[in-house]
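Recap slide: lytic cellulose monooxygenase (C4-dehydrogenating), sequence and predicted structure.
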Amino acid sequence: MKPHHLLLSFLAATTVTAHYTFPELIVNGKKTGLWTYVRKTANYQSNGPITDISSPSIRCYELSPGTPSKTYNVSAGDDVGFTAASSISHPGPLQFYMAKAPEGQTAATFDGSGKVWFKVYSQGATFSPGGGMAFASSGVNVIPFATPTSPKPLHYHRNHASNPHPSQPGKSQLTISLPASLPSGDYLLRIEHIALHSASSRGGAQFYISCAQLTVQNGSGGGQLPPPDQMVAFPGAYEASDPGILVNIYYPVPTSYTPPGPAVWSG
């Protein structure tokens, strides 16, 4: 093979490797099977992101018509997460949203349309005194669900014991719990990682998304969903010009960062 062909092959392989999906639900440390309880996404082979936030695909990025997925029974307070294949390789915020299936629908039949989504977790950037900016999700290949009142993941588990820095590539799992105040019912659980390495130009931010199907049992009997001002629709929740989406994270290095979307619902 000629040298330039080798280079093109390498670049193509690198591009695929640099992208990622969230194909598997994890409940209380148990992996539940690839695309079994997670709706198969349109990028399940390419791993490529979605960049058009006005597209309906920004909701769950699922195949059309999609592959039927099962619904997993969980209890309020369970530890719930996703695997990442192969790992989160770009810097950016990690967020979780949920949407409760309306009366007469299930998690399997609910398409997630309308102002039904509420944010339950948001992990932004950390900043060092010397002017550095970092995202704790970079390098993760097992993604947790998060309690809405927790500003950052509570536990980090690393691939290699020699890696002393949980915010650096090499960590494989971080775990927090499903809120106990969540009302019982069927839900879509949406994971969103926004890669910001090319976000200095409009349309440069890359969205990596999956939705799992859950039935929440033993939830709060009197639990209420968030008020209307904390509910959003996908598409519609974000604008391409939002400062959490259109941002240069390299130069000049920002001194603050707020992920896009509504406030986190604290239950």
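The domain at 19-230 is CATH 2.70.50.70 (Coagulation Factor XIII; Chain A, domain 1).
The CA atoms of residues 192 and 209 lie 5 Å apart.
(End of recap.)
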